[in-house]
From TrEMBL:
Pfam families: BPD_transp_1, DUF4896, TM_PBP2_N. One of its GO terms (biological process) is maltodextrin transmembrane transport. It comes from Dictyoglomus thermophilum. InterPro entries: DUF4896 (IPR032605), MalF_N (IPR035277), MetI-like (IPR000515), MetI-like_sf (IPR035906), TM_PBP2_N (IPR032550). Keywords: Cell inner membrane, Cell membrane, Membrane, Sugar transport, Transmembrane, Transmembrane helix, Transport. This is Maltose/maltodextrin transport system permease protein. The keyword Aminoacyl-tRNA synthetase does not apply. The keyword Kinase does not apply. The lineage of its organism: Bacteria, Pseudomonadati, Dictyoglomota, Dictyoglomia, Dictyoglomales. It is a multi-pass membrane protein. Residues 337-562 form the ABC transmembrane type-1 domain. The chain crosses the membrane at residues 7-26, 32-52, 59-78, 336-360, 372-392, 424-443, 474-496, 541-563.
């Protein structure tokens, strides 16, 4: 019985996972995330294949690893490469279809056709003497009465609701039936103060003519903000559109409006082929919008370009060219790159040197209390990273109440140092703190490497008359570097992209005064990319992705050179 129950639960969970993954894949594809949706569908097919095919039984244990490999490694790499060749960022988030849809249907892109406002009354259902959000609008247009029901959210080709639409129904008597629902206007059609519909009673809430209803302005504004500010009422007979706008006196009123842009098509020749391209036409000037590099521009009265909206577009190598050709970017980028290499190199060399000194001392069998010293020296490595960094930042290097500026420097007659506002000292403390955090790791790997060197080599060298320094230079160091060289290279690569320390300690500051991008003197390349992507006046995801790819090749190139250098030590060991 228990076995059957277990099988049922497992099959149920499998069916649930299939349903969820299939729904997620379809949903992502419908929302234009084709690649991620395809990855999820492929993962679902592989999961089912591994489970239902007896020959693929061993592979079912790799299912979790494959899922995380696709989602956390392969897809981010693909997305970064794809984004690097686009203008994706602030002002260029939408697809072209979404951008066109906004220009065509967003109520912000409308204009008033007739300056005279339309008389209107708003009726709402009251509950506990307070108006609810169930309302009707009564319009007086050219001596005729029109009824507008609560506008319905309308989704066009995209996924976002840009506007609400409603119809204008012409009312000719005090009792009418619209879409199967009866409405009675009381007391008369000319002077309505309430509307009865089935079991609902709509009472007069606000009127453009009745100043006594100004007390309900608050509720009227709520309806405007939530329902009417992006609503359009369409006259079924004439096709005219009624919408709400702010009048010259600062009040919300209804006007006849028209959409500022419309869609058209023009023939474009590409070689011997001719195809139709969609263009956006300004309905007031009858001139097409300028579409360039993923942006739509209109012309103002003076003929100057006015940016309207942008969309994600392919820009080729433009982001990469920008790094080197735009002096506003290339200059801070070059300075940041040089500092990143310096910071990585100095930190690795300094932490390795200190770690090696402690390792040599702890490797001495005559040293008493080695276990105690080893435990104490490993503490910086054991303490959580962010706690150590914030302790150094606020407890030691704080310019106001830090122990150095407040106690130690005054004791020896020195002036306080601007640790975080002076570029030189800011770089110094970055190297100091990172060395403090990494030397225990270097000490540990060096200690392990030292213990693997045979004692016989030192005995033979001592017999030949080699001193301690000679033994260290010709035996210890070459053999040690052979073992730890790959670890030093990986440590260099890790430090090269050590975003956490820079972000917590200096946040990349102090800022470069001459830079037009959010660059700081202690920014490393990865923190600079972060600022470009998420801080500053706008996000530049495409440009940040391009720099990320460049960082990858820089680290890969430097690591390759280091690996070749480490190969020379292999030759020494072989000899």
């Amino acid at each position: 019985m228990m076995l059957k129950l277990t099988k049922f639960v497992l099959w149920f969970l499998l069916a649930l996972v299939n349903a969820l993954l299939f729904w997620a894949g379809v949903y992502l594809i419908q929302n234009y995330y084709y690649e991620l949706g395809a990855i999820i569908i492929i993962a679902l097919i592989l999961i089912d294949f591994f489970i239902f095919n007896p020959k693929a039984y061993p592979y079912r244990y790799t299912i979790p690893a494959l899922i995380f490999l696709f989602l956390l490694v392969i897809y981010p790499i693909y997305f970064t490469i794809k984004t690097a060749f686009t203008n994706y960022g602030t002002g260029h988030i939408f697809t072209r279809q979404e951008a066109v849809e906004r220009l065509l249907y967003d109520p912000n892109y409308t204009y008033v056709v007739e300056k005279n406002p339309i008389d209107f009354k708003i009726f709402a259902v009251y509950k506990d003497e307070k108006p609810t959000e169930s309302f009707l609008v009564l319009f007086k247009i050219g001596g005729e009465t029109y009824l507008g029901k609560m506008p319905i959210p309308t989704v066009r080709k995209g996924t976002e609701v840009l506007l609400r639409e409603g119809k204008l129904y012409k009312i000719t008597s005090s009792k009418v039936t619209i879409d199967g629902v009866s409405y009675e206007f009381q007391p008369t059609l000319k002077d309505v103060n309430q509307i009865i519909s089935k079991d609902k009673v709509y009472k007069l809430l606000y009127s453009s003519e009745d100043l006594s209803l100004e007390r309900n302005t608050y509720y009227f504004i709520l309806l405007i903000q939530k329902y009417l500010s992006n609503a359009e009422y369409i006259d079924q007979e004439t096709g005219r559109i009624v919408g709400v706008k702010v009048d010259t006196d600062g009040r919300w009123k209804f006007f006849f409006i028209n959409r500022l842009y419309r869609l058209s098509f023009e023939e474009v020749k590409a070689g011997d082929k001719t195809y139709k391209k969609s263009v956006i036409i300004n309905t007031k000037t009858q001139k097409p919008l300028i579409e360039e590099k993923g942006s739509f521009y209109d012309l103002d009265e003076n003929g100057n370009r006015v940016f309207l909206i942008g969309y994600t577009a392919f820009v080729g190598l433009e982001n990469f060219e920008r790094i080197f050709k735009d002096e506003r970017i290339s200059k801070p980028f070059l300075n940041i790159f040089i500092w990143t290499v310096e910071w990585s190199l100095f930190t690795v060399l300094l932490s390795f040197s200190i770690g090696l000194i402690f390792a040599l001392a702890l490797n001495n069998r005559r040293l008493k209390g080695r276990n105690v010293y080893r435990t104490l020296l490993i503490i910086p490595w054991a303490i959580p990273y962010f706690i150590s960094v914030l302790t150094w930042k606020n407890g030691i290097f704080n310019e106001t109440y830090g122990i150095l500026n407040k106690i130690i420097l005054p004791m020896i007659g020195l002036n306080p140092i601007k640790w975080f506002n002076d570029p030189f000292w800011a770089k110094v403390i970055c190297i100091i703190v990172n060395t403090w955090l990494t030397f225990p790791y270097m000490m540990t790997i060096s200690l392990g490497a030292l213990q693997s060197i045979p004692d016989e080599l030192y005995e033979v060298a001592a017999i030949d008359g080699a001193g301690r320094f000679a033994r260290f230079r010709y035996i210890t160091l070459p053999m040690l570097l052979t073992i730890v060289a790959p670890l030093l290279i990986s440590s260099f690569a890790y430090t090269f992209n050590n975003f956490t320390l820079i972000y917590l300690l200096t946040a990349g500051g102090p800022p470069m005064v001459s830079a037009t991008t959010p660059a700081g003197h202690t920014d490393i390349l990865i923190s600079y990319v972060y600022k470009l992507a998420f801080e500053g006046r706008g996000q530049e995801f495409g440009f940040a992705s391009a720099i990320s790819i460049l960082i990858f090749f820089l680290v890969a190139g430097i690591s390759l050179i280091n690996f070749k250098i480490s190969g020379s030590f292999e030759e020494v060991r072989g000899e």
